[in-house]
Amino acid sequence: MRRSIVVAAALLTWAAPSALTAQDDDRAIVAVLKYDNNTGDDRYAHLGRALSSMMISDLSVLEDIRLVERERLEELVAELDFQQSAYVDPESAQSIGMILGAQYVVAGAFVTAEPEMRLDTRIAKVETSEIVSTAEVRGESESLFDLQQRLADELVQGFGLVLTEEQEARLRAQQEANRIDDVETALKFSEALCLIDYGAYLDAVEVMNDVRDEAPGSAIVGATMRMLQDRVEEEAGNRLRSEANRRIGGLLGRRSQEPERRPRPPQC
Prior knowledge:
This protein is α/β, with parallel strands linked by helices. It contains 9 helices and 6 strands; from the N terminus they run αββαβααβββααααα.
């Protein structure tokens, strides 16, 4: 009962803007959820965030679909506190898709049997909960980029998209631009995304500095660094404004522009 009330309230808050946007855009709206870690290994605890982030960024160059922002997805999932994975529970996937105004939800999971990794994905149609396509790719975990690239191709086919040579070239260029070759770097990137999701921006900056050093040419790393810098500056500004508002008739004085460091979230 409580879940129904929360979902209904979220529909009022989230779905109306999405529906208005969809009226002006006839592209299919797609939500790519965080991939589930089914390895049993805490080392991969947050890799699902990186996989969904890279997939969203890669597929964003395709004109026929519109991707929901990853952080918006994470905010919604955290707000609704889903206890069951959307990959194994069609009802959870449908609820998320309905609230976001998405026509399709992509949910997935990964498992390892070192040195091999397997990525599984399902595309669900929100309106009917029908599984319209499934995909599975496997290979060495150290070749994570190749696995993710193959999975993107499977998803394109799952949506029934036939790419022109120009579209194919654009997708490949985007994947190469986002490329993170080293699995350890991808795991650090995943950790940083977790910290960002929980608002621990200063901790995220420290992790992202290492990621940037190890993958200096990655466009998705650069974009995440710019977004993170904006978040840090915004939080610092908000804190100073709040402090100034508490000082009636006083002077703010010289203060650091760095936001107060929050405790590192135990989830990350």
